[in-house]
Specification:
Number of domains: 1
Strand content: 15-25%
Radius of gyration: 13 Å
Oligomer: single chain
Order of helices and strands: EHEEHEHH
């Protein structure tokens, strides 16, 4: 279940994806499959080759992408990997949402 997501942030994420950029969106999220995790970062790009290459840099496999017909395919980052990648990408504002 997603919550704490601002419409403006979602729109900006989609616009970046539409422009072929690697886009990050962190929001609160609860899923019983991942106890103790309360946020997720969605990393998307309309250029799937670019997204896969970005994922490989961070040790992510292409089969972990949530392939979407609506054009907003993305990786879901959670837990320690989420924090590690956000730090490497220097996305301090996204990291603040983990607190």
């Amino acid at each position: 279940m997603a919550f704490g997501l601002r419409r403006k942030d979602l729109q900006e994420w989609k616009m970046k994806i539409d422009r072929g950029e690697i886009a990050f969106l962190t929001h609160y999220w609860i899923d019983d499959r991942f106890p103790g995790c309360k946020t997720v970062t969605k990393v998307g790009c309309s250029d799937l080759k670019k997204l896969i290459e970005w994922g490989e840099v961070h040790g992510l496999k292409p089969e972990w992408i949530d392939y979407r017909n609506d054009g907003y395919s993305h990786y879901d980052l959670i837990g320690a990997r989420q924090k590690e990648i956000l730090q490497k990408e220097k996305l301090w504002e996204q990291l603040e949402r983990l607190l």
